[in-house]
Design goal:
Elements lengths: L17 H6 L4 H9 L2 H11 L11 H6 L10 E6 L8 H8 L1 H14 L4 E6 L4 H16 L4 E4 L4 E9 L9 H8 L23 E5 H13 L1 H5 L9 E8 L5 E6 L4 H8 L9 E5 L19 H6 L8 E6 L4 H15 L5 H19 L7 H13 L7 H15 L1 H10 L16
Parallel strand pairs: 1-2, 1-5, 2-4, 6-9
Antiparallel strand pairs: 3-4, 6-7, 8-9
């Protein structure tokens, strides 16, 4: 895809400024949506486009909007998930910091479509610069009449507020985000009921990801058929892929959905540096099952990646060369999930810590490891799958099962030797607590 849409900020200097954004066609989609379409028509357009959520779950956006009650005396809320806490993912941050009005335009159109008059941007606490950029963009948009009372003289009112989180991974889960936004501890909720009927403050609520909403203005301007023509029919559109790790050119790439993983790594990201060989790729962020080098000939769309045994997730592609220890890598991942578990569900609270403990034993040998520890990792992960309120337990278990299954000889080598064979000396024992 030669034309950049979601990342056109790279081609247009100072696109974060309202005057530059408007001079380059900004807010035309807003004007068209609010003056030429009804809310129902906009929902139908997004449904017809097959836009699927870009935050990780890949749920059809228009269908999610359609779950809202047709008649309700309660206010409807739009929550923008700008938490972006999945390791290996950094796409939303670029939109927030360099093209905030694109996000705001998506928010305004989406809010009009779902008859919402208050939208909250729940942003990751560490995105301090992004908060400042968003606050300034909202102030500019309000002065220009794009936010506030009687937008563009249409009678539609909308207020947009930025709410800073505190860097908790669990707030990326939509009901954990809602709990946090309400001022409570971010314990995910049991579903049903779903946020579309019982969300923020007990009212109908839609939670959409930053990249998802950034697609909406382009769909309104160019049409659902244009969007569907990019990539596979069931999950079309432009997509932001985050590539990190052992590649020549790490970064965010805007490509058609369905671009092959091999092409992303070797053509766009420049391949593996220093003549090293590829050892492993995580295709969709830290919580997704790993691919071996033999599995990277897969189109990077939601259905194809799932069929290949993993998930597209947030499209955080993490590349590892042949110097990487897979036990160490999995240990680091499980340490993250252990730290980020909210502790509400026993399998997640205890399982993530147990996984980290066993993997540390295999890696460092501070306590004698045995061959049984390899199967123990699989056993723990198997008992964590599908047993908790939210998907964090699964997010920790899926990589564990994939790493051990696909790189078992390396795990067994650790168990036999009593520590990592890639290290000249074991690391001193680390205190837990």
């Amino acid at each position: 895809m030669a034309e950049r849409l979601l990342l056109r900020c790279r081609d247009i200097p100072d696109l974060r400024r309202l005057d530059v954004y408007v001079a380059n066609g900004g807010y035309q989609a807003t004007r068209q949506a609010l003056t030429a379409h009804t809310p129902e028509q906009l929902v139908d357009i997004v449904k017809a486009s097959n836009l699927r959520g870009r935050g990780g779950a890949g749920f059809p956006t228009g269908m999610k909007w359609g779950f809202l009650p047709k008649q309700t005396a309660k206010p409807v809320y739009l929550c923008v998930n700008a938490d972006e806490s999945e390791p290996g993912t950094f796409k939303d941050r670029e939109i927030i910091e360099d093209d905030p009005h694109q996000l705001l335009e998506g928010i305004i159109i989406s809010a009009f479509a779902i008859r919402c008059h208050t939208a909250y941007i729940y942003i990751r606490g560490e995105f301090a610069h992004g908060v400042c950029v968003l606050d300034e963009a909202i102030a500019e948009a309000r002065r220009a009449g794009f936010i506030g009372k009687d937008i563009l003289g249409t009678g539609f009112d909308l207020e947009v507020w930025v709410h800073r989180g505190a860097g908790a991974y669990i707030c990326g889960e939509e009901t954990g985000l809602i709990e946090s936004l309400e001022g409570k501890r971010a314990y995910p909720r049991i579903k049903p009921p779903f946020p579309a009927t019982h969300g923020l403050f007990g009212c109908p609520t839609i939670v959409n990801n930053v990249e998802t909403l950034a697609c909406v203005p382009h769909i309104v301007l160019r049409g659902a058929d244009w969007f569907k023509a990019i990539g596979p029919e069931k999950s079309p559109g432009p997509k932001l892929f985050c590539v990190s790790g052992h590649v020549v050119r790490p970064g965010t790439y805007e490509l058609p959905m369905g671009t092959p993983l091999r092409e992303i790594i070797y053509t766009h990201a420049g391949g593996i540096p220093n003549g090293r060989k590829l050892k492993a790729v995580i295709p969709g962020g830290a919580s997704m099952p790993v691919f071996t080098p033999e599995e990277i000939d897969v189109p990077m769309d939601m259905d194809s990646v799932q069929k290949a045994g993993s998930f597209l997730g947030s499209a955080g592609i993490m590349v590892m060369d042949d110097t990487v220890c897979m036990v160490w890598t999995l240990m680091v991942l499980e340490r993250f999930f252990h730290h980020e578990s909210c502790g509400q569900c026993t399998p997640c609270r205890e399982g993530t810590g147990w996984l980290e403990k066993v993997l540390r034993r295999l890696e460092y040998g501070d306590v004698t490891a045995t061959a049984r520890d390899v199967d123990l990792v699989l056993n723990i992960a198997g008992n964590m799958m599908g047993t908790t309120i939210c998907a964090l337990s699964d997010a920790a278990a899926m990589p564990a099962r994939a790493f051990v299954t696909k790189y078992r000889p390396e795990f067994e080598q650790h168990a036999t030797r009593g520590r990592c064979p890639f290290r000249s000396a074991p690391e001193p024992a680390r205190a837990h607590g």
